[in-house]
Amino acid sequence: MADAIDAAPVRAQASGAPLMEVQDLEAWYGESHVLHGVTLDIREGEVVTLLGRNGAGKTTTLRSIMGLVPRRAGSIRHAGQELINARSDVIARAGIAYCPEERGIFASLDVTENLMLPPVVRTGGMAVSEIYELFPNLKERARSQGTKLSGGEQQMLAIGRILRTGAKLLLLDEPSEGLAPVIVQQIGRTIRELKRRGFTVLLVEQNFRFAQTVADRHYVMEHGRVVDMVRNEDLNTSMDRLHAYLGV
Amino acid sequence: MLDLIENFLGIPAPLLFGQLLLGLINGAFYAMLSLGLAVIFGLLNIINFTHGAQFMMGAFVAWMLLAWGGLGYWWALLIAPLIVGATGVVIERLMISRLYKLDHLYGLLLTFGIGLMIEGVFRNEFGSSGLPYRIPPELSGAWDLGFMFMPIYRGWVVVFALVCCLATWLVIEKTRLGAYLRAATENAALVQAFGVNVPRMITLTYGAGVALAALAGVLAAPIYSVNPQMGTNLIIVVFAVVVIGGMGSILGSVITGFGLGIIEGFTKVFWPEASATVIFVIMAIVLLARPAGLFGRA
Fold first, then answer.
1. CATH number at residue B131
2. pLDDT of B238-259, one tens digit each?
3. Prediction ipTM score
4. Tens digits of residue pLDDT in A10-62
5. What is the Cα–Cα distance from B96 to B37, expressed in whole angstroms?
6. Which of A108, A140, B123, B161 has the most CB atoms around its CB within 10 Å?
7. Number of domains forming the structure of chain A
8. Which residues of chain B does A112 touch, with a Cβ-Cβ cutoff of 8 Å?
9. Segments forming the whole domain that contains residue B72
């Protein structure tokens, strides 16, 4: 699996104050308390992953940042703006874009309509032609119904459509999940290209060998908390620790 | 051709075409009303039982504009849907929006109750005998088509309703706003997480569906007498049309609306006693064979 992923890790080049600071984030689904105080930060231009076992709270962390959980507490500061009480459309308009785990491709829309759906929230988003350059398959399938695409193409569409909006912080939930190795490589190349273009990415991953090829830092989650942080360059020396957390 | 119909079926052609036209007129109202219901149901997941009352309000606002404001039919066609649509916006904001987290049944009960109250107020104010509303002079008279006389206003109603249905379909299927609507029907939370103000979109969609009902009410004012029950009588059939066509299907509600109007008209020719029940018989059969309706997604 690791051999299938060829590229070297991207060197950290992020600098400056954090673009987003999450502090003591808690979240509930009805009666069940899912997040118990998540604290993390992301600097501009960084690619940061959330690693952890199933049910550790990685997806809920992204959904909470996006305002998609019924109840949350703590603090989410993005570019100096507190978003903990903001509605999800306000959060999106602050410049945060979300690509859900289930991809969220709309069946009643064709590929072009899916691609053009998220409203532009800032100037400086990618042009449709650039997105097609990144994902040539999408151009060929422009008139297909969204859910008629293959899993890999749906993932490309789900990522591609949030690049148009001008949002600079991307929340990607397991973009490599369930895809063939060659497609996973393409997604990896895409994430490195997005970093090169100045996007900031918070990435949920189960597969830390994939995470290793794209990220600057890794947060490890357990039982609804962040329990550790590993820099990508320290990953090899921290392998035993990570194995213990992830049970691989 | 006409002789053939007369000889073969034993029915005078003017009677046949007269009923066909009547069926088309009724179908036009079925289509416009079920279209509004479909648009509202698609996004709000609420069966709007106030729809009949809002249709009636459209006719009454047209009457008031003329009687109290001196504004005629053409102005009413523009203003009445806006006024009634605005009342819909208020009802959605103040009341319906509080029920989205509950079972759909609550929305149904609430809108049913609001409908009864609106009709009660109008009955109290205007009585139940009905008020006259004249056909605008530009559309009065009839064309001689050779085999029958065609009242111009009735032709106008059919054409206007068809144009409204086509325009609504185009907006929903071919525009960016329509893409938002279709996407939000599937997954409203995600559309909102892309930065679309979904609560406002829901409010305006309800207002637009209500405005469509009111527009049909203005169209109906010169044909039916303007009275507080005019919506109740029609809406029961319209709900049957919606069930047959399939909840939430735009094209389905238009085709089913016109189709059932025509079937009802023909039934009046061939078996007059059955004409009041034929739609409900079809509804029962469709429900047994295809519970999601002819055009519905199962």
1. 1.10.3470
2. 999 988 988 778 888 899 999 9
3. 0.88
4. 444 445 679 999 999 999 998 899 999 999 999 999 999 999 988 899 999 99
5. 15
6. B161
7. 1
8. none
9. 26-289
